[in-house]
């Protein structure tokens, strides 16, 4: 477990007040690490490079982003977004922290992995731990690597079709080689485009039913 630090740039902001009303920072960050590592790794292969995670709560556009070095990560979280999410503040805070913590630990094919897959895997973990927001919808997206929830549901479908542990294997395959779409054929026997076509057909059929 890395060391956790917290910086609040506007303690009077309504988003900061909501944050502290609904979560205990140390517990929320620890749970996000556990969720991330439980879905992407086993006890034998959890990365040990992340030594410190700094959570920065500040007014800013957007939702959140992760930056930092291999050993020291920073999660910047928008107080404005927390304020906008007041009606479901706890679930949204925990969901965003889980998503960003995945970025601290996941593999990225030496920086060559498509951004849509990176974001999709983060939301895939968020989906699996029951922290998906109500507006997420299965079957959305025009391409497999649209990212976020669109790719997250696609990855969940692949896991359902090909067996538990498939996305764990996908993450592991992104550890020490550059990205190539053949990774999907290696893991599933089908190309990612074949998988996407079948997923969309399945989603449409489910909607009709």
TrEMBL record:
Pfam families: BSP. It comes from the Eukaryota. This is Plant basic secretory protein. It comes from Daedalea quercina L-15889.
């Amino acid at each position: 477990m890395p060391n956790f630090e917290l910086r609040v740039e506007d303690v009077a902001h309504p988003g900061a007040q909501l944050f502290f009303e609904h979560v205990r920072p140390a517990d929320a960050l620890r749970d996000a690490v556990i969720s991330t590592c439980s879905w992407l790794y086993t006890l034998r292969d959890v990365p040990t490079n992340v030594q410190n995670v700094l959570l920065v709560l500040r007014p800013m556009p957007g939702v959140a982003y992760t930056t930092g070095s291999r050993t020291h990560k920073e999660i910047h979280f928008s107080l404005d977004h927390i304020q906008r999410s007041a009606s479901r503040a706890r679930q949204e805070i925990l969901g965003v922290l889980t998503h960003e913590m995945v970025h601290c630990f996941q593999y990225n094919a030496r920086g060559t992995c498509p951004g849509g897959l990176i974001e999709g895997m983060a939301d895939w973990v968020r989906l699996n731990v029951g922290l998906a927001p109500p507006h997420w919808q299965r079957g959305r997206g025009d391409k497999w690597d649209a990212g976020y929830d669109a790719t997250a549901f696609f990855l969940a479908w692949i896991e359902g079709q090909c067996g538990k542990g498939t996305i764990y294997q996908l993450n592991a395959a992104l550890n020490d080689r550059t990205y190539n779409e053949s990774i999907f054929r290696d893991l599933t026997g089908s190309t990612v485009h074949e998988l996407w076509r079948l997923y969309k057909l399945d989603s449409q059929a489910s909607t009709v039913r």
